[in-house]
Design brief:
This protein is an all-beta fold and about 120 residues long. Helices cover about 0% and strands about 60% of the residues. Strand 7 and strand 8 form a beta hairpin.
Protein backbone atom coordinates (compact mmCIF):
# COMPACT_ATOMS: atom_id res chain seq x y z
CA UNK A 1 0.00 0.00 0.00
CA UNK A 2 1.29 3.43 -0.98
CA UNK A 3 0.25 6.67 0.67
CA UNK A 4 0.95 10.32 -0.05
CA UNK A 5 0.42 12.60 2.92
CA UNK A 6 0.47 16.38 2.51
CA UNK A 7 1.08 18.92 5.24
CA UNK A 8 1.69 22.62 5.62
CA UNK A 9 -1.51 24.23 4.40
CA UNK A 10 -3.32 26.92 6.30
CA UNK A 11 -4.42 30.54 6.36
CA UNK A 12 -2.07 33.33 5.35
CA UNK A 13 -2.43 36.98 4.46
CA UNK A 14 -1.81 38.20 0.94
CA UNK A 15 1.88 38.71 0.35
CA UNK A 16 2.81 36.00 2.81
CA UNK A 17 4.44 32.61 2.31
CA UNK A 18 3.59 28.99 2.95
CA UNK A 19 5.53 25.79 2.50
CA UNK A 20 3.82 22.51 1.67
CA UNK A 21 5.30 19.06 1.89
CA UNK A 22 4.14 15.68 0.68
CA UNK A 23 5.68 12.43 1.84
CA UNK A 24 5.22 9.13 0.06
CA UNK A 25 5.35 5.92 2.06
CA UNK A 26 4.70 2.23 1.60
CA UNK A 27 6.06 -0.49 -0.65
CA UNK A 28 7.87 1.87 -3.01
CA UNK A 29 10.48 0.66 -5.46
CA UNK A 30 11.06 4.01 -7.11
CA UNK A 31 9.40 7.36 -7.75
CA UNK A 32 9.54 9.17 -11.04
CA UNK A 33 7.91 12.57 -11.32
CA UNK A 34 6.28 14.24 -8.33
CA UNK A 35 4.08 17.27 -8.53
CA UNK A 36 1.50 19.61 -7.17
CA UNK A 37 -1.94 20.48 -8.48
CA UNK A 38 -4.57 22.78 -7.06
CA UNK A 39 -8.30 23.11 -7.29
CA UNK A 40 -10.17 26.27 -6.39
CA UNK A 41 -13.92 26.24 -5.66
CA UNK A 42 -15.89 25.91 -8.87
CA UNK A 43 -12.80 25.43 -10.99
CA UNK A 44 -11.00 22.51 -12.56
CA UNK A 45 -7.89 21.04 -11.03
CA UNK A 46 -4.81 22.67 -12.53
CA UNK A 47 -1.12 21.89 -12.59
CA UNK A 48 1.04 23.97 -10.27
CA UNK A 49 4.43 22.34 -10.86
CA UNK A 50 6.19 19.03 -11.20
CA UNK A 51 9.72 17.77 -10.72
CA UNK A 52 11.38 14.68 -12.19
CA UNK A 53 13.55 12.26 -10.25
CA UNK A 54 16.54 14.00 -11.80
CA UNK A 55 15.43 17.41 -10.57
CA UNK A 56 14.04 18.91 -13.76
CA UNK A 57 11.18 21.24 -12.92
CA UNK A 58 8.19 22.61 -14.77
CA UNK A 59 5.79 25.30 -13.60
CA UNK A 60 2.48 26.76 -14.62
CA UNK A 61 3.39 29.95 -16.45
CA UNK A 62 1.33 32.12 -14.12
CA UNK A 63 3.21 30.86 -11.07
CA UNK A 64 6.80 31.11 -12.23
CA UNK A 65 8.87 33.24 -9.91
CA UNK A 66 6.56 32.89 -6.92
CA UNK A 67 6.41 29.12 -6.37
CA UNK A 68 9.34 26.73 -6.07
CA UNK A 69 9.11 22.94 -6.17
CA UNK A 70 11.83 20.71 -4.78
CA UNK A 71 12.21 17.14 -3.59
CA UNK A 72 14.25 14.97 -1.30
CA UNK A 73 14.60 11.59 -2.98
CA UNK A 74 15.99 10.00 0.17
CA UNK A 75 12.83 10.95 2.04
CA UNK A 76 10.41 10.36 -0.87
CA UNK A 77 9.16 13.88 -0.23
CA UNK A 78 8.23 16.76 -2.50
CA UNK A 79 7.97 20.35 -1.32
CA UNK A 80 6.27 23.48 -2.59
CA UNK A 81 7.47 26.87 -1.39
CA UNK A 82 4.88 29.53 -2.11
CA UNK A 83 5.81 33.20 -1.83
CA UNK A 84 3.98 36.47 -2.48
CA UNK A 85 0.70 34.66 -2.12
CA UNK A 86 -2.44 36.18 -3.60
CA UNK A 87 -6.12 35.59 -2.76
CA UNK A 88 -6.47 33.80 -6.11
CA UNK A 89 -4.00 31.18 -4.88
CA UNK A 90 -6.68 29.98 -2.48
CA UNK A 91 -7.38 26.34 -3.29
CA UNK A 92 -6.98 22.78 -2.15
CA UNK A 93 -3.47 21.69 -3.09
CA UNK A 94 -2.86 18.07 -4.03
CA UNK A 95 0.42 16.28 -4.55
CA UNK A 96 0.84 13.43 -6.97
CA UNK A 97 3.62 11.01 -7.76
CA UNK A 98 4.33 8.36 -10.36
CA UNK A 99 5.33 5.44 -8.16
CA UNK A 100 6.63 2.02 -9.02
CA UNK A 101 5.86 -0.83 -6.65
CA UNK A 102 6.66 -4.50 -7.06
CA UNK A 103 3.41 -5.04 -8.94
CA UNK A 104 2.56 -1.83 -10.76
CA UNK A 105 3.57 1.66 -11.82
CA UNK A 106 0.90 4.30 -11.55
CA UNK A 107 0.00 7.75 -10.34
CA UNK A 108 -0.88 8.22 -6.70
CA UNK A 109 -2.57 11.25 -5.14
CA UNK A 110 -2.55 12.80 -1.73
CA UNK A 111 -5.71 13.78 0.12
CA UNK A 112 -5.21 17.50 -0.38
CA UNK A 113 -4.41 20.39 1.92
CA UNK A 114 -6.31 23.67 2.07
CA UNK A 115 -4.49 26.92 1.40
CA UNK A 116 -6.44 30.09 2.07
CA UNK A 117 -5.03 33.52 1.29
CA UNK A 118 -6.87 36.45 2.79
CA UNK A 119 -6.85 39.90 1.25
Amino acid sequence: QVQLVESGGGLVQAGGSLSLSCAASGSIVSINAMGWYRQAPGKQRELVAFITSGGTTNYADSLKGRFTISRDNGKNTVYLQMNSLKPEDTAVYYCDAMIRTSTTTRMYWGQGTQVTVSS
